[in-house]
C-alpha cells in the first residue's frame, strides 16, 4: 500500500458531487489532511471537518486561481471543476473547462509545491453520441469537430490535452508535476442532483414506465464512491512516481484511465431499478416503448418550443441529445485501471443504487 501523503490538497469544484466523495475518502484515509476547495458555490456539499477550507473562486479568473493556489500551496490537485452538464451557456465550457485548466496549470507551476494533478475528464471525449461505444479502451481516438459536435466534450478534450502536455512540465523532468486523467462512465451516488436526481424525480412522478428505443443497450455506470477510490489510487501512484524516471511499462503519469463498476446494465433497467428503490416498481407488462425516431421527433419539437418561448435562455427537459444518450450502447474497458492502478470497485451496482436512492429519500424526509 502506498505510504505517500496527499496533503495539502486542492480540489477544484470541491463542492460538487464527485468532489464531495473524493474529499470524504481523503478524510477517511487521513483525518488530519489539510484540504482546500475552490468553487463558485460553496454553500452545498460541505464537510464539517475543520481541515476542509472552502474558497469562493472562479476558475475562469486568473486572479482567483492564483489566490487560492497561493493559499493552499498544494502537493496534490484533484481537478474536477466543470459547469453543470447541459445547463451552462456555451461560453462557460471554454472559460471554465479549458481556460480554467490552463490557469490552474500555470498557478501550479508558479507555486512550486505541486507534485500531482489528477484530472476528472469524461468518456464522452471518445464518443460522438451517435455511435455505439463497445468495450472501448483508452486508446480509442479523441474525437474532434466536425465528428464531435458536443461543446462539453470538445472542451473536456482540450482540457485533457493541456493536462497531459503539462506532465513532467512538458518534458522529461523527474521532478516536474505528474498528471493523469480519469474518464468515468455515467456516475451515480449520494448528492447526485444531476443524472440520478432526475431519475428519482421521474420515478416519483410515475413516469419510469416510459422507455425510449428497444431497451437492449448495455451501459456502464460507476458508483461515485468507487470513482473517488480511483482518484485516490491515481494520486498515490503519481506521488510514488514523482522524482523518478518514467517507467517503460505501465506508467501512471501522462495516462488516461477508464473507470466503471465493471458491471454493465441495460440503460432502462437501471432507470426501473431506481424506480423500484423509490417504492414505485414497474411491471414488465406496464413498460411503454417509444420508438427512437418518435423520441427524436419529440425532442426536436421540445427544443423548438422551449427556444421559441424563452428566446434560447432555457434548456428543455427533453432533447435529441438526451434521447440518443439513453438509446446508445456505452461500455468501457477498465483493464488498464485494474492493472496499473490496482482499481477494483468495492461497492456493487445494487448496493450503490440502494445507498444512493436511500439518501434522496432521507433528504426529503429531513
Average residue pLDDT: 91
Name of the level-1 CATH class of the domain at 9-187 and 221-262 and 330-348: Alpha Beta
Q: Give me the CATH fold name of the domain at 9-187 and 221-262 and 330-348.
A: Rossmann fold
By DSSP, the count of extended strands is 15
Structural class: alpha/beta
CATH architecture of the domain at 9-187 and 221-262 and 330-348: 3-Layer(aba) Sandwich
The value of Rg in angstroms is 20 Å
Instruction: State the helix count.
Output: 11
Shape label: globular
Describe the oligomeric state of these chains in a short phrase: single chain
How would the blueprint of this fold be written?
Layout (H helix, E strand, L loop, with lengths): L8 E4 L4 H13 L5 E5 L12 E5 L5 H11 L3 E4 L10 H22 L4 E5 L12 E4 L14 H15 L12 E7 L1 E3 L6 H10 L5 E3 L5 E2 L1 E3 H18 L13 E5 L5 E2 H11 L10 E3 L1 H19 L9 H8 L2 E3 L2 H7 L7 H17 L1
Parallel strand pairs: 1-2, 1-4, 2-3, 4-5, 5-7, 6-15, 7-12, 8-11, 9-14
Antiparallel strand pairs: 10-13
Amino acid at each position: 500500500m502506498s505510504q505517500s501523503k496527499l496533503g495539502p490538497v486542492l480540489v477544484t469544484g470541491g463542492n460538487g458531487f464527485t468532489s464531495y466523495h473524493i474529499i470524504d475518502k481523503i478524510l477517511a484515509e487521513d483525518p488530519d489532511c489539510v484540504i482546500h476547495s475552490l468553487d463558485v458555490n460553496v454553500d452545498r456539499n460541505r464537510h464539517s471537518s475543520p481541515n476542509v477550507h472552502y474558497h469562493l473562486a472562479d476558475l475562469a479568473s486568473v486572479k482567483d486561481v492564483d489566490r487560492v493556489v497561493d493559499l493552499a500551496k498544494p502537493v496534490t490537485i484533484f481537478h474536477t471543476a466543470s459547469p453543470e452538464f447541459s445547463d451552462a451557456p456555451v461560453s462557460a465550457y471554454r472559460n471554465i473547462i479549458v481556460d480554467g485548466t490552463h490557469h490552474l496549470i500555470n498557478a501550479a507551476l508558479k507555486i512550486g509545491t505541486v507534485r500531482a494533478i489528477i484530472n476528472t475528464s469524461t468518456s464522452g471525449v471518445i464518443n460522438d453520441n451517435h455511435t455505439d461505444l463497445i468495450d472501448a479502451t483508452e486508446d480509442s481516438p479523441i474525437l474532434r469537430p466536425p465528428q464531435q459536435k458536443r461543446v462539453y466534450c470538445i472542451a473536456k478534450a482540450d482540457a485533457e490535452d493541456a493536462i497531459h502536455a503539462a506532465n513532467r512540465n512538458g518534458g522529461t523532468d523527474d521532478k516536474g508535476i505528474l498528471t493523469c486523467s480519469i474518464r468515468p462512465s455515467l456516475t451515480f451516488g449520494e448528492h447526485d442532483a444531476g443524472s440520478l436526481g432526475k431519475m428519482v424525480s421521474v420515478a416519483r412522478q410515475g413516469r419510469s414506465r416510459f422507455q425510449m428505443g428497444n431497451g437492449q443497450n448495455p451501459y456502464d455506470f460507476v458508483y461515485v464512491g468507487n470513482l473517488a477510490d480511483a482518484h485516490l489510487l491515481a494520486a498515490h501512484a503519481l506521488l510514488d512516481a514523482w522524482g523518478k524516471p518514467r517507467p517503460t511499462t505501465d506508467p501512471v503519469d501522462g495516462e488516461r484511465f477508464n473507470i466503471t463498476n465493471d458491471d454493465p446494465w441495460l440503460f432502462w433497467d437501471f432507470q426501473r431499478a431506481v424506480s423500484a428503490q423509490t417504492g414505485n416498481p414497474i411491471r414488465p407488462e406496464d413498460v411503454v416503448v417509444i420508438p427512437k425516431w418518435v423520441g427524436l421527433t419529440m425532442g426536436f419539437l421540445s427544443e423548438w418550443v422551449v427556444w421559441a418561448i424563452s428566446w434560447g435562455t432555457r434548456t428543455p427537459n427533453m432533447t435529441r441529445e438526451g434521447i440518443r444518450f439513453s438509446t446508445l450502447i456505452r461500455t468501457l474497458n477498465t483493464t488498464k485501471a485494474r492493472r496499473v492502478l490496482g482499481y477494483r470497485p468495492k461497492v456493487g451496482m445494487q448496493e450503490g443504487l440502494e445507498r444512493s436512492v436511500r439518501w434522496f429519500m432521507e433528504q426529503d424526509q429531513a
